[in-house]
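in:
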């Protein structure tokens, strides 16, 4: 039975990855920060087969203890402070967790595997936010990184540190440069879930409008369940490497609103949407070229944009109905 350790198991990717690995017969360990983490019960309810360990990406000693307890064949580092807007408010904490945390877990893997640097295969969750001020469209593995947020800068540090450990120590270490990926498990602070949750509440008469920024901004959106499959495929290769994981298609915020409101039978959503300059962000065209992942990993997305957003609205309707009836 292969063994895997997942940091960030409380997030959408961690939950989907744990489900995938358990279905493949893995023994799965998840790292939880803090004894009283409010998401502990969420993990136990969603993936009851996962075994939870307490640890912190900013504490190397706790990571070493987690490695000894889990004795993993694969480590997936998904833990991060991942809300980009928050990273400007707390740049130092974002750097400690999202940047230095990668170095800490890499070092824990290296020390645990001191007799054989390839004993443990390592995955780092890199991000399309590393491209920032995009230097070419679409973005691929060789595109120059030009981050435009503290989050993006921290992710670049972790990305290059993963490459450095692979090249310096011979570790089987891979990075997945994941473009935006969403699901019903996405946090409500992210724009897709903000929209689908608001649409559900508008349909149920619980709110009247949603406040948005630039409706012309475009993103390459995929389904998180597809993207964790790509993570697993990376660690099944003979050598570690870096891969862009994306759909290769973009959709605007306006299109997101079109699909979300259409899911509840509203064709003209203009009276429900108000724009606020406070929500405006640089509208770089982030669109990934997943050719390498397709050719090497045999990976392709299976859930399209409209299906994804409709799925999220349906989930939020169910959740909001339950809360309103409580």
């Amino acid at each position: 039975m292969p063994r895997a350790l997942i940091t960030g198991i409380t997030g959408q990717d961690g939950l989907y990855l744990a489900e995938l690995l358990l279905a493949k017969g893995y023994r799965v360990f998840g790292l939880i920060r803090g004894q009283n983490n409010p998401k502990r019960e969420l993990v136990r309810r969603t993936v009851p087969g996962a075994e939870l360990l307490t640890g912190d990406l900013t504490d190397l000693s706790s990571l070493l203890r987690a490695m000894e307890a889990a004795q993993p064949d694969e480590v997936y580092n998904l833990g991060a402070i991942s809300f980009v807007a928050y990273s400007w408010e707390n740049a130092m904490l974002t750097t400690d967790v999202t940047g230095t945390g990668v170095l800490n877990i890499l070092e824990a893997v290296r020390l645990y595997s001191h007799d054989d640097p390839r004993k443990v295969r390592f995955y780092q969750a890199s991000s399309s936010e590393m491209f920032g001020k995009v230097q070419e469209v679409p973005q691929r593995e060789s595109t120059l990184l030009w981050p435009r947020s503290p989050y993006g800068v921290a992710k670049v540090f972790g990305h290059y540190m993963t490459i450095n450990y692979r090249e310096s120590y011979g570790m089987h270490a891979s990075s997945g440069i994941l473009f935006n990926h969403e699901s019903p498990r996405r946090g409500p602070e992210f724009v897709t879930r903000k929209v689908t949750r608001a649409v559900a509440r508008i349909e149920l008469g619980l709110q009247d409008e949603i406040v948005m920024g630039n409706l012309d901004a475009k993103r390459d959106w995929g389904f998180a369940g597809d993207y964790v499959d790509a993570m697993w495929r990376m660690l099944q290769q003979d050598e570690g490497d870096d891969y862009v994981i994306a759909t290769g298609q973009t959709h605007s915020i306006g299109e997101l609103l079109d699909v979300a409101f259409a899911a509840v039978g509203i064709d003209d959503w203009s009276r429900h949407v108000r724009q606020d300059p406070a929500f405006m962000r640089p509208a770089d065209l982030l669109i990934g070229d997943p050719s390498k992942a397709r050719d090497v990993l045999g990976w392709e997305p299976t859930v399209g944009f409209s299906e994804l957003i409709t799925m999220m609205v349906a989930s939020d309707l169910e959740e909001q109905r339950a809360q309103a009836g409580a």
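note: The chain has eleven helices and 13 strands.
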